[in-house]
Design goal:
Elements: H1 3-33, H2 40-50, H3 56-71
């Protein structure tokens, strides 16, 4: 691989990592502001108030992740 290809691959990895970190931060903010058992409509309202200028695609992605987390509670690992 030449230097230009390596630099392009590194930029792409960095962009993907940054996008994931931003998405995770949005999900955490929405999740933290939503009370347990919130309906999807309540979560959407909260998300739209936090991120009024965010693209619809990114907003729905974050809302879906928050709603999925509420439907699938974290399992607790018990060690013997």
């Amino acid at each position: 691989m030449d230097l230009a290809a390596e630099m392009a691959a590194a930029r792409k990895r960095r962009e993907e990592q940054t996008a994931k970190l931003l998405r995770d931060a949005r999900v955490q903010a929405i999740r933290g502001a939503s009370r347990p058992g919130s309906t999807r409509a309540e979560i959407e309202e909260r998300a739209r108030s936090f991120y009024p200028r965010l693209s619809e695609e990114l907003l729905l992605e974050a809302i879906d992740l928050v709603c999925d987390d509420q439907r699938t509670p974290a399992t607790r690992v018990v060690e013997d």
